[in-house]
Amino acid sequence: MKLYYAPASSYSQRVLIALNEKQIKFTPIEVNLFDIKAREAYSQINPFAKIPTLITDEETVIFEANLIIEYLDQTFPHTSRLIPENSQQAIEVRLLERIIDVYINTGREALFADKQRPEAERNGKEIVKPKRLLETALLLLEQKLTNRIWLAGDEFSLADCAAAPTLTYLRMVYDYTYLPNLTNYVRDLECRASVAKVFTCGREQMTQMLSKLQYPLQLVSAR
Ligand SMILES: N[C@@H](CCC(=O)N[C@@H](CS)C(=O)NCC(=O)O)C(=O)O
């Protein structure tokens, strides 16, 4: 099995966390999408030129981080499950992942873009709606985490694989320490071995990328 990825890419990190959780062996292939030739070659594998992409031992090409994790869950059923077998619990996991992707990640991207505008042009109408949706989503997670260790309950799941990079990168542009359950949860996430390993590998590339921005940003530690 081959995984095309980049160490700092949040969607790649979702899959890498899942692979670590499941302790599945794979061949990592790092892709530099900033290199035009490498990007062109990679678009022969994934026409959208987005990472990650998994190529299975049967040469099936799978892209979309969630689908790759779903494939891993189905193909390696004796490893720790990331999508529960129980259909109601599975819906909860998928719902949480959607909330993270659609509202938190989109809000994060909007705030990130805002931070790259000259100061006088920031906080305009472009970010009103995405910020409101982001805050609604964060509050929902805060409530869910009242009685839960991980996002969907006692078991680490696909939702946590999605939450880890998204909420960690979110801290660069949005301070959510006013939400204590969420703050503690992210601290626990970052201490989990599968997550810590992935973040350690991605830190250097992310730090370099952030330093090259017109308005540089910094990774903020949860600890
Ligand atoms: N929906 C895709 C999103 C993948 C994605 O956006 N990956 C980013 C890196 S985190 C990417 O490849 N960006 C390069 C680009 O958009 O040109 C998934 O779930 O895998």
Which secondary structure elements does this structure contain, and how are they paired or packed?
Elements: E1 2-5, H1 10-22, E2 27-30, H2 36-42, E3 53-55, E4 61-63, H3 65-75, H4 87-115, H5 128-144, H6 158-170, H7 180-191, H8 193-211
Parallel strand pairs: 1-2
Antiparallel strand pairs: 1-3, 3-4
The chain binds glutathione.
Please characterize this protein's 3D structure.
This protein is α+β, with helices and mostly antiparallel strands and 223 residues long. It folds into two domains: 2-75, 3-Layer(aba) Sandwich (Glutaredoxin); 87-211, Glutathione S-transferase Yfyf (Class Pi), Chain A, domain 2 (Up-down Bundle). It contains eight helices and four strands. It has a four-stranded mixed sheet with strand order 2-1-3-4, with helices on one face. Helix 1 runs parallel beside helix 3 (65-75) and helix 4 (87-115) packs parallel to helix 6. The chain starts with a strand and ends in a 12-residue tail after the last helix. Residues 9-11, 33, 49-51, 64-65 line the site of glutathione (GSH).
Summarize the entry for a quick read.
The chain has 223 residues and is an alpha+beta fold.
What tags apply to this protein structure?
54% helix, 2 domains, 223 residues, binds glutathione, Glutaredoxin
CATH fold annotation of the largest domain: Glutathione S-transferase Yfyf (Class Pi), Chain A, domain 2
Task: List the total number of helices.
Answer: 8
> What is the distance, rounded to the nearest whole angstrom, between the alpha carbons of the first and last residues?
35 Å
Rg over CA atoms: 17 Å
**Cofactors, ions, other ligands:** glutathione
Biggest beta sheet summary: 4 strands, mixed
The parts where pLDDT drops under 50 for at least 5 residues are none
Strand-pairing-aware structural class: alpha+beta
- Spatial ordering of strands, largest sheet: 2-1-3-4
Determine the strand fraction and express it as a percent band.
5-15%
- Number of extended strands: 4
Indicate the CATH class of the largest domain.
Mainly Alpha
Mean pLDDT: 97
Helical percent range?
A: 40-55%
As for the number of domains, it is 2
